[in-house]
Design brief:
The chain is of the alpha+beta class and about 450 residues long. It is built from twelve helices and 17 strands. The strands form four sheets. It has a six-stranded mixed sheet with strand order 6-2-1-7-17-16, with helices on one face. The longest helix is centred in the C-terminal third of the chain and has 19 residues.
Length: about 450
């Protein structure tokens, strides 16, 4: 469609969500995605829209006690494409929302392709558009040419961090005579996670193996790039202390081993990664170890002695902009307000957060195209808290990627007991979101 009203650059979670919000409102959208045109990122494996790279989990779906669960709920109220597709692709994960990544990507593509006023074009965009409305949602793996174009317009240095990918194991290679199904504290249906127990000696040997294993070598320009705390390679966590893993991804608390009736000293958990239950993701085992070392060390884990891997762990460089000083409250680039940014390139972190910012960018652009005033959601909502952090609340000089969390929400005006604080935040957010939607005359169909 040569007469498109807005161009979206990037067909990941944020770009797909923004395209959905605009096209379903009748605006003509050109969605440009370089994968499928002969180009590929260092981390993606397919040309599918909204491909999930690091994990298949959207984390907690608990809207009463968890900030990301609250964000799920708010996205559903605003007719999120990602939440629609997740419902179709959902796999068991206790109180979390996890999906079959192939089914998820296919459903996103199906829903977008069905929109007659949306054109999906496989093309690489090397420079920022000089005219016409656009949303840049190229994610943390933005092509170098476009990144340089962003720098030339903003005049600011981009920031970067490393993001590590966890291995995936074939289910039929897991020894279920050693491992067992259970969720922590028996949440879920009892088969949401596979647990591989370790005694003290096994854990100590495994910890030493992580320290000794050969790691991926960094290029000169990558050496000073910080890791994101929420996606830390397991061997880097191991370097922080002998007990760090036992209080993190290998925490045994709440997991009764049916073979002993007791909690193990440490545990490795695997989460279902596809609908058929044939693939299982090693939870929290993002790694930069070399592939041969991964296979050798992970097969020392009880229950994984004969493990076969559908995917080994990996590492890629992520890039994001200094959003607190570059973007206005509606995600527009201050120096070129016809351009909005959305998703992880803004410095939000996580699948859900990326999609949420894309959703908001799409709605903001839709209101602008319609000539209607748009007031951003209150900071007391999950949407508002995330947007405020990105567009000015965060300290620009030390700006780092951030997941949604209750620390981004305004504190209670009065005294609220610590045990009641989460309920206070979620109750207040729901009420404020409903009021905001009513004031704007907004519903999922407009």
């Amino acid at each position: 469609m040569s007469d498109h009203q807005i161009q979206i650059i990037g067909g990941g979670l944020a770009g797909s969500e923004a395209a959905w919000q605009l096209a379903k409102r009748g605006f003509k959208v050109r969605l440009s995605e370089m994968r499928g045109s002969g180009d590929m990122t260092p981390a993606h494996q397919t040309a599918g829209l909204a491909e999930l790279v690091c994990s298949n989990s959207f984390r907690s779906d608990d809207a009463e006690n968890n900030a990301v669960g609250l964000l799920h709920q708010e996205m559903r109220k605003l007719d999120s494409l990602v939440m629609r597709a997740a419902e179709v692709a959902k796999v068991p994960a206790g109180s979390a929302l996890a999906v079959d990544r192939d089914v998820f990507s296919a459903e996103v593509t199906r829903l977008l392709t069905a929109l007659p006023n949306l054109e999906i074009v496989r093309e690489r965009i090397d420079t920022l558009p000089t005219a016409g409305l656009a949303i840049v949602a190229t994610g943390p793996l933005t092509a170098q040419s476009l990144a340089q174009s962003v720098l030339s317009v903003t005049g600011q240095d981009s920031l970067a961090f490393f993001d590590a990918i966890a291995p995936i194991v074939y289910h039929d290679s897991i020894d279920m005579d050693v491992a067992w199904y259970a969720s922590r504290w028996d949440k879920g249906d009892g088969k949401d996670y596979i647990n591989c127990p370790m005694d003290k000696d096994q854990y100590l040997a495994f910890h030493q193996g992580l320290l000794d294993a050969p790691k991926a070598e960094f290029r000169e320009w990558e050496k000073d790039t910080p890791y994101f705390e929420g996606c830390m390679p397991i061997e880097v966590m191991a370097e922080r202390g002998l007990e760090t893993l036992r209080f993190g991804p290998m925490k045994p608390v709440g997991l009764d081993n049916p073979k002993t009736g007791r909690w193990p000293y440490a545990v490795v958990q695997l989460r279902q990664d596809n609908k058929q239950g044939t693939l299982w993701n090693m939870v929290g085992f993002q790694t930069k170890m070399k592939h041969a070392a991964q296979v050798a060390l992970f097969r020392t884990i009880p229950g994984l002695a004969n493990a076969e891997f559908a995917r080994l762990g990996g590492l890629h460089r992520n890039t994001f902009i200094r959003s607190p000083i570059l973007l206005d409250r509606q995600l527009r680039l201050k120096s070129a307000p016809h351009i909005r940014f959305a998703g992880q390139i803004t410095g939000c972190e996580g699948y859900v957060e990326s999609a949420a910012v894309g959703l908001m960018a799409g709605i903001m652009a839709a209101y602008e195209l319609a000539g209607r005033d748009f007031a951003p959601p209150p900071r007391t909502t999950a949407f508002g808290a995330l947007l405020h952090h990105i567009t000015g609340e965060a300290e620009a000089d030390s700006y780092q990627p951030m997941n949604i969390n209750f620390g981004l929400f305004p504190s209670p005006d009065g005294k609220v007991h610590k045990k009641e604080r989460k309920a206070f935040y979620t109750d207040r957010a729901r009420a404020e979101l409903d009021s905001w939607m009513a004031e704007l005359g907004f519903n999922s169909g407009n």
